């Protein structure tokens, strides 16, 4: 059962793009013949499906099973209070998102006192991982192959605000952001997910070692200058640690 759990977790980390048999063997440390046998058994019960490109993704039977499982967010009101505390401290918009179906699902948005707000995402929205600062944090938790699959869809997932900019330029900005996350554990900057919008985001710590949630501060570019980075990062880290108490 432990190997099955490892395998399902590895498949799930690739989202809807799917994973190759080789990827799954490397990620789990399970021999390829054994992975192939387990995949066949999981396909038989609908927990795994094979895509047209031969990759493996989670099956629809898991959707029904998951519907009966508790939410990883144990106390949404507490998460909202932590986010509001951060908004009050920094004056800007704070978002909390979780990884869901290979996308960023937004569960909290709180506002600070600054009158001009950057409300680019609403609570309840589920958007591509390349379309927000929190999404980039969640994208960075995936392996290299899964990242490339998401970036390859940028032409279809690109927000309308980027349509006047070349696709190549946008992709370069996203890749630089992912490099920063890999190196520093967070992203900070402007004109990454949307022109004129700045943000800072980092993962919410997880007991499993693979974060499924992220928290961010977003605002106009003038609101998040480089000199505010240390202050905002400290506030954000404290908030992420607090939120981690309420998300499994």
In short:
Residues 61-248 form the IclR-ED domain. This protein is an alpha+beta fold and 248 residues long.
Strand order of the largest sheet: 5-4-3-8-7-6
Named CATH architecture of the largest domain: 2-Layer Sandwich
| CATH homology superfamily name of the largest domain | GAF domain
Q: What is the domain tally?
A: 2
Q: Write the element-wise H/E pattern from the N-terminal end onward.
A: HHHEEHHEEEHHHHEEEH
- CATH level 1 name of the largest domain: Alpha Beta
Q: What overall geometry do the principal axes of the alpha carbons give? A: globular
What would your notes on this structure say?
The protein is of the alpha+beta class and 248 residues long. The protein folds into two domains: 2-67, Arc Repressor Mutant, subunit A (Orthogonal Bundle); 76-244, GAF domain (Beta-Lactamase), CATH 3.30.450. 44% of the residues lie in helices and 17% in strands. It has ten helices and eight strands. Strands 5-4-3-8-7-6 form a six-stranded antiparallel β-sheet, with helices on both faces. Strand 6 and strand 7 form a beta hairpin. Helix 5 packs antiparallel against helix 10. The mean pLDDT is 87.
């Amino acid at each position: 059962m432990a190997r099955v759990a490892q395998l399902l977790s590895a498949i799930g980390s690739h989202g809807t793009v799917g994973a190759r048999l080789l990827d799954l063997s490397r990620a789990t440390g399970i021999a390829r013949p054994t992975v192939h046998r387990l995949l066949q058994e999981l396909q038989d019960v609908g927990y795994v499906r094979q895509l047209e490109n031969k990759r493996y993704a989670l099956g629809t039977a898991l959707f029904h099973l998951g519907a009966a499982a508790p939410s990883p967010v144990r106390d949404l009101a507490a998460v909202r209070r932590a986010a509001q505390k951060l908004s009050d401290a920094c004056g800007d918009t704070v978002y909390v998102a979780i990884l869901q179906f290979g996308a960023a699902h937004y569960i909290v948005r709180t506002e600070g006192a600054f009158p001009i707000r950057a409300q680019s995402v609403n609570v309840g929205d589920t958007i591509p991982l390349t379309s927000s600062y929190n999404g980039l944090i969640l994208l960075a938790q995936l392996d290299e192959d899964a990242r490339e699959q998401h970036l390859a869809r940028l032409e279809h997932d690109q927000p309308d605000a980027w349509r006047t900019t070349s696709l190549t330029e946008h992709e370069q900005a996203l890749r630089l952001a992912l490099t920063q996350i890999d190196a520093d554990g967070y992203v900070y900057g402007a004109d990454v997910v949307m022109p004129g919008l700045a943000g800072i985001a980092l993962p919410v710590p997880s007991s499993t070692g693979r974060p499924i949630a992220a928290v961010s501060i977003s605002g106009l570019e003038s609101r998040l200058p480089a000199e505010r980075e240390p202050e905002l990062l400290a506030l954000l880290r404290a908030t992420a640690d607090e939120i981690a108490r309420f998300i499994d």
